[in-house]
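Re-running the complex after MR caught last week's input typo. The corrected sequence lines follow. Everything else is unchanged.
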Amino acid sequence: MTDAEIEAFMDASAVVLGLRLEPEWRDAVRANLALTFRLGLLVRHFELPDEAEPAPVFTA
Amino acid sequence: MPKLTWQSATEIAAAVGSGALSARVVADAALDRIAARNGVLNAFTDVLAERARARASAIDAERAVGRKPGRLAGVPFAVKNLYDIAELPTRAGSSINRERKPAVRDAVLVTRLERAGAILVGALNMGEYAYDFTGENCHDGPSRNPHDTTRMSGGSSGGSGVAVAGGMVPLALGSDTNGSIRVPASLCGLFGLKPTFGRLPRTGSFPFVSSLDHLGPLARTVGDLACAYDAMQGHDADDPFCAQRLEEPVFETLDQGIEGLRIAAAGGYFQAGLMPEAERAVQQVRDALNVDREVDLPEAARARSAAYLITAAEGGALHLARLRTRPGDFDPDVRDRLLAGAMIPAAMVIQAQKFRRWYQHAISRLFDEVDAIIAPATPCGAPLLGQKTFVLDGVEVSVRANLGVYTQPISFVGLPVVAVPVPGPMPVGIQIIAPPWREDVALRIARYLEIKGTAVAQRPPAE
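Corrected-run output:
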């Protein structure tokens, strides 16, 4: 994603969630989102079957 | 008055139990020590002098009438300030939570340690809302590493590491969502135990990521870790994720040695990005345990990524109302990460949870072949306070997000880990990782390394 695309996503998400983004916070939030999406891509590219059960409640 | 700076919890308990020392003398020594050192080290945010002295006097009185003291009789301890302490608001490293009503009772683990005779002396500094690996905190100031006060303690249980490494108490409790016990144990040169997910109840502690949060102890000896851990075991119905398992005491098994245990070193991901001091520490432990074998934890980088996503999203959701209404009251370093976390699309988080199941199965299979795995706890010794980035595997990355790069793929599937300290100019920790519910195996190996002198909680330079 480009910086502009992340900016657009960030602004739209802020509206949906009712969050205020002060101008001096924007760079850091955008950088965090960029990292998050990079890691998200890594996870998304791992092929899992439709039957793979999510593990939100994990018991070791 | 004895200084009792570096005595272990088990030594103190033996002396109090035999009457060689009174609990009151021990408590006073700890309080004196905290008063003398906390101005520099900034480990404690609350000191409970009155409560500690009253409790110590009660223990002495019970002993005087012939009651058997507990296994932690008279041992001073302190807890990360996300543990509930009766009559204090549970601040969890934040400014916002100071407005909460005081807790009406202590956290379950505090109660269990006190039932064994230990004495709570205070609450400890931490990274805000536990979203931190540095030990820095803009509201309370940073915890300072006792081995070099210009350096980080590691976090988020920073005060827990500093209080024990600084000789203020022999035992502290922390929490570990992605590495927050193991990282400060590594940077402060301590033993730290992150038990299996669901082993110890979290009842009465402020949450961060419910499916990743663990509680556990930090100490200067393996015996102290084990003794505290045994005192804290047992189901508690008020933590819905706490497993219904019988207690499995480990203290008496510590000295069984390592014969017959198949131990391997984690390869691949866990060898990339190590700085020289961490590389040396891994090698020293491998040599001491005679480990030739290497295993790959499959897809560890993806596991770390998935843990990152789940943490950010759950953390963002937990704090959403506060982010909406009073974002300016957060530590800026934490707020920016939580704001981004709240925005993560649901599909991305669910994908991470599905991957988690796959990874759990893959790791389970690995433990068919080995009994324990060793891996670095941090990529380096303690960075300087205020340092924002370091270079990992040739790439400049954030210290705050990456000190736990080797701990995250392990806690992601709830495995029990003992972090053991390898001495050096600045100590570095190594993780001893065992299969689920086999804390005993990790502690036995840690004990073996301690006896050999490979893993030792080194005393900081003269104060």
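None of the earlier attempt is carried over here. Chain A touches chain B at residues 9-10, 13-14, 17-22, 25, 28-29, 32-33, 35-36, 39-40, 42-44, 46, 48, 52-60 (CB under 8 Å). The mean pLDDT of chain A is 92.
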